Amino acid sequence: MFKLLTASLRQAGVVFLLVAASSSIAHSQVTNGSFESPTVPVGNFTNFPVVGSPLIPGWTVVNNSVSIVSGTFSQNGVTFQAQDGVQWLDLTGDGSNSNEGVSQGVSTIAGHTYLLSYFIGNTTGGGIFGTTSTVNVSINNVSTFTNTNSAVNATSLTWQQFTHTFVAGGSTTTLSFFNGDPPGDNSNGLDNVTLADQGIVGAVPEPTSAALVVSGLLGLGLLTRRKRSK
After folding, report:
1. Among 13, 84, 166, 181, which residue has the fewest nearby CB atoms (within 10 Å)?
2. What SS3 state is found at 19?
């Protein structure tokens, strides 16, 4: 029984290390990417100005005010559910709707390729929320990506994922997301922003810790078998 228990523990250890390695690869380097902080009133929203309080952890508001919206908020027959968690960011703010947005500096490694992912929410209902939602993305203050969600949905938000890759040029990269909707369009959703390090694309990957442990355990098993055969 002891041998069986030891073998089970070894297998569990390998599984744990493999899961840990996988989690590390999937880890996002964006802080508060789903805008869950600070908590806004359930069924309502809170506006965040460029300067002053309250503030959005991890993010800097630029050009004009933006709003964090509760996923249970509804208006004019439209329910504004979140894509991830229970809150999301409206880049049009409240009564402003210009080139407002949010910005965040993240730690990067020069020469590494990064996968940037985010969701844009759009509704065609309500009469005051426009028909499309466009987000302009800048990297290090240079306009880099533009994406438009044109999904038709008159009763709620339809969230669409957009992904892009870029190569970091230094130890810090500034990501900025700006409203690209015209005046009169009062909803432009942003949620679940993530950034994942893909390493140096094309380089031969080094063995992971989990792989080394697996190899070591396999070698230990072969050694045990040899001792038994002797």
Report:
1. 13
2. helix
Burial (Cβ within 10 Å: 0-12, 13-18, ≥19) of residue 156: middle
Of all residues in the chain, the percent with pLDDT exceeding 90 is: 70
Query: Rounded to 5 degrees, what are φ and ψ at 178?
Result: -120, 150
Three-class SS state of 64: coil
Provide the residue ranges of all domains of the chain, joining segments of one domain with +: 25-197
Kindly report whether the peptide bond that precedes residue 49 is cis, defined as omega within 30 degrees of 0.
no
What are the angstrom distances between the C-alpha of 224 and each of 132, 216, 221? 65, 12, 5
97 pLDDT tier (thresholds 50, 70, 90): confident
Q: Which CATH architecture has domain 25-197?
A: Sandwich (2.60)
Window from 92-96, 166-170, 185-189 with minimum mean pLDDT: 92-96
Token couple for 193: 């922003």
Cα 156–chain centre separation: 21
CA separation for the pair 95, 2 (Å, rounded): 69
* Residue 36: both structure tokens together: 């869950």
Token readout for 115 is 């996968």
* C-alpha to C-alpha distance for 85 and 108, rounded to whole angstroms: 26
